[in-house]
UniProtKB/TrEMBL annotation, chain A:
Subunit details: The main subunits of complex b-c1 are: cytochrome b, cytochrome c1 and the Rieske protein.
Transmembrane domains' residue ranges: 43-71, 91-112, 127-148, 154-173, 194-215, 247-269, 313-332, 344-365, 371-397
Subcellular location field: Membrane
Family matches, as InterPro entries: Cyt_b/b6_C, Cyt_b/b6_C_sf, Cyt_b/b6_N, Cytb/b6-like_sf, Cytochrome_b, Cytochrome_b_C_euk/bac, Cytochrome_b_N_euk/bac, Di-haem_cyt_TM
Protein name per its UniProtKB record: Cytochrome b
Taxonomic lineage of the native organism: Bacteria, Pseudomonadati, Pseudomonadota, Alphaproteobacteria, Hyphomicrobiales
Keywords: Electron transport, Heme, Iron, Membrane, Metal-binding, Respiratory chain, Transmembrane, Transmembrane helix, Transport
An MF annotation (GO) of this entry: quinol-cytochrome-c reductase activity
Membrane disposition: Multi-pass membrane protein
TrEMBL record, chain B:
Residues engaged in binding heme c: 62, 65-66, 204
Cofactor, how bound (note): Binds 1 heme c group covalently per subunit.
A GO term from the CC aspect: membrane
Cofactor: heme c
Organism expressing this protein natively: Hoeflea halophila
UniProt keyword annotation of Iron present: yes
Keyword Nucleotide-binding: no
PANTHER family (alphabetical): CYTOCHROME C1, CYTOCHROME C1, HEME PROTEIN, MITOCHONDRIAL
Limits of the Cytochrome c domain: 49-220
Subcellular location, principal: membrane
Protein name as catalogued: Cytochrome c1
Signal peptide region: 1-24
InterPro entries: Cyt_c-like_dom, Cyt_c-like_dom_sf, Cyt_c1
Length: 432, 276
């Protein structure tokens, strides 16, 4: 990571000896102690640290759970119940891990929303953003496979439905599905490979996270004004400023997490997953975990054929497309102004986008029929319209508010209370 | 949250048979009653007397059809029994063991480390003996049944800490058998119950009746009381570490609250000299 701000001064003889051979302490010091961050970061910028904690929580609880879990369709369900009943603190490990997945997604969606609101994906941070989308995809794959492991009814039927998506692709679809399943239907080979991949993917996530943080430290962080750091007065050292703020946000996030682990441990799951998987009995309603519901709504919104593409393939393409569009987001947004604080129209469309995503999530849990289908189609239209029409056009026609000349100016104007319209608007966003 | 949002979702990709979906949309006919459970809320604990009565009902009224595979006799110590009492209870059961040194399977008297033996050798036998519908295992039933609460109730449930959907459902089902209303045809071999989660009638005959099980602690011997007690027992069977969980959770929240307060004060003092 860039060394131009390196203030690391080894004092001991051992420290100097190490520093001239493998400057790992210098790297850590430069990345997490002296690393300069914008002085005006608000709490929306703490989710990176929160996500780091959640990844560690998931990996640690997951490794211990794997010591007690058996990936065999005959005993998987009972091995999970063994963890819940007989393993010391097994109930705690499992509830942490299951709710941890949900809270990982809560944090990642807020992290992504912050990136969209403040235009964090714009040049020169495109690679940083793309690496983030790769992490999101890996997280989704990991979460899906993890949900299959307890081998309950929703595990089995969720796996059947989701791997069934691939059959929509003509020709290559069925071979892909059979490769995923290790056979013609969800069975023991499926469970075994899902367990293997569920153990592998988090370490791939950790690897991409390193690249993500590396890219972040090359370009530096954005900030609520969207104005780049210009002078040293615009920044504060990571430690103690960002460290203590992250620590506060993490402890509050963990409190909410703990409330669910200890007092609502099954609220975010599905009751049917306490019924052992039965390939002969289809549950009345097969639904994915809550964090997949918006994408599920998009999948089911496509009920019509588009030329040679039938509705099934169309739905699958729309669903994959809803993630794929994020990869090209940096080039879809034509505005030179980063932060929504100075883009009144973008701000409006952004909040509609957020409301629409929640709306789609609600629809994902409703039957795909009648008015619900029409509402899901409207929601899907806005989802793609936001990226493919609104963002490119808005950048060309929108008149942004006046930007502050520097972060320091914005901060001081807010404190002095003498800012113009632009800085007054900024101040409401910069609290923290 | 999906279980809460997902009141009536048909499966994607034509996995759900149309009829199943059409029925699923409107059941149960009546919402479950909300019983005032001793184990509800952040400080709720099991009522041991109630669990003991519930166990008695399971043993005397339910266990002829319903298995409880995941509950071992040793774990019943949670209900307040001594080791000696449990050994006596276990001795009432025969379990299969083996093979012995001649390679033969044999039956022996159950001991504390054994689990409640199933009334049927397998699912098929259970279904065959029960009009085609195998009676579900009791171990997790209290967590495996959830009646949709709908919006916005499921949001309020987060704040009120509502986790008693399962026992409420079981209680309501057991007390909900009634004559079908005029004009409602109930298929032969099934019993009308507007609280049943998957249709207007179920294959299980009303399992409880007043005075069926004798209580020796003076508790009223009514269907309502039986239903409450067995539902509470089933909640324990499904979530035996609930009390430990809530107690640990209380300490964790207290710790995090203190830690967060200290972080808040530290943050304030760190930023005090810096406009941000």
């Amino acid at each position: 990571m860039s060394s131009d701000h390196s203030t690391y001064q080894p004092t001991s003889g051992v420290g100097k000896w190490i520093d001239s051979r493998l400057p790992l302490p210098r790297l850590v010091h430069d990345s997490f102690v002296s690393y300069p961050v914008p002085r005006n970061l608000n709490y929306a910028y703490t989710f990176g640290g929160i996500l780091m904690v959640m990844l560690v929580v998931q990996i640690l609880t997951g490794i211990v759970l794997a010591m007690h879990y058996a990936a065999d369709t005959a005993i998987a369900f009972e091995s999970v119940e063994k963890i819940m009943r007989d393993v010391n603190s097994g109930w705690l490990l499992r509830y942490m891990h299951a709710n941890g997945a949900s809270f990982f997604f809560v944090a990642v969606y807020l992290h992504i929303a912050r990136g969209m609101y403040y235009g964090s994906y714009k040049a020169p941070r495109e690679v940083l953003w793309i690496l983030g989308v790769v992490i999101l995809l890996l997280m989704m794959a990991t979460a899906f496979m993890g949900y299959v492991l307890p081998w309950g009814q929703m595990s089995f039927w969720g796996a059947t439905v989701i791997t069934g998506f691939f059959t929509a692709f003509p020709g290559i679809g069925e071979p892909i599905q059979q490769l995923l399943l290790g056979g013609f239907a969800v069975d023991n080979p499926t469970l075994n490979r899902f367990f293997s991949l569920h153990y592998l993917l988090p370490f791939m996530i950790a690897g991409v996270v390193i690249l993500h943080v590396w890219a972040l430290h090359v370009t530096g962080q954005t900030n609520p004004t969207g104005v780049e750091v210009k002078t040293k007065t615009d920044t504060v050292p990571f430690t103690p400023y960002a460290t203590v703020k992250d620590a506060l946000a993490i402890s509050i996030f963990l409190m909410v997490f703990a409330y669910f682990i200890f007092f609502m441990p099954n609220f975010l799951g599905h009751a049917d997953n306490y019924i052992p998987a039965d390939p002969l009995k289809t549950p009345a309603h097969i639904v994915p975990e809550w964090y997949f519901l918006p994408f599920y709504a998009i999948l089911r919104a496509i009920t019509f054929n588009i030329g040679p593409i039938d509705s099934k393939l169309g739905g699958v393409l729309a669903m994959f497309g809803s993630i794929a569009v994020l990869f090209v987001l940096p080039w879809l947004d034509t505005s030179k102004v980063r932060s929504a604080v100075y883009r009144p129209w973008y701000k409006l469309f952004f909040w509609i986008f957020v409301a629409n995503a929640i709306f789609l999530g609600w629809l994902g849990a409703k039957p795909a029929e009648g008015a619900y289908t029409i509402m899901a189609q409207i929601g899907t239209l806005y989802y793609f319209g936001f990226f493919l029409v609104i963002l490119p056009v808005l950048g060309l026609i929108e008149t942004p508010k006046r930007l502050p000349n520097s972060i320091t100016e914005a901060v001081l104007a807010k404190k002095g209370g003498s800012g113009g319209a632009a800085t007054a608007a900024a101040s409401s966003e910069n609290r923290g | 949250m999906n279980k809460l949002l997902a009141s009536i979702v048909p499966a994607a990709m034509a996995l759900v048979i149309g009829a199943g979906y059409a029925f699923a949309a409107s059941y149960p006919i009546n919402k479950p009653h909300e019983v005032d459970w001793s184990f509800a809320g952040p400080f709720g604990t099991y009522d041991k007397g109630q669990l003991q009565r519930g166990l008695k009902i399971y043993v005397e009224a339910c266990s002829a059809c319903h298995s409880m595979d995941l509950v071992a006799f040793r774990t019943l110590e949670d209900l307040g029994y001594s080791e000696g009492q449990l050994k006596t209870l276990a001795a009432n059961y025969e379990v299969e063991d083996g093979p012995n040194d001649e390679g033969e399977m044999f039956t022996r008297t159950a001991v504390l480390s054994d689990y409640f033996p199933s009334p049927f050798p397998n699912q098929e036998a259970a279904a065959y003996a029960n009009n085609g519908a195998a009676p579900p295992d009791f171990s997790l039933l209290a967590k495996a049944r959830y009646v949709e609460r709908g919006f916005p109730q499921f949001v309020f449930d987060i704040f009120t800490g509502y986790n008693e959907s399962g026992p409420n459902y079981i209680y309501s089902l057991l007390t909900g058998y009634q004559e079908p209303p005029a004009g409602v045809e109930v298929p032969e071999g099934t019993y009308y119950n507007p609280y049943f989660i998957a249709g207007p009638a179920l294959a299980m005959a009303p399992p409880l009746s007043d005075g069926l099980v004798t209580y020796d602690d003076g508790t009223p011997e009514t269907v309502e009381q039986y239903a409450k007690d067995v539902a509470a027992f089933m909640m324990w069977a499904a979530e035996p570490h609930m009390e430990e969980r809530k107690q640990t959770g209380f300490m964790v929240i207290i710790f995090l609250a203190i830690f967060a307060s200290l972080m808040f004060l530290t943050k304030k003092s760190v930023f005090a000299s810096k406009e941000h």
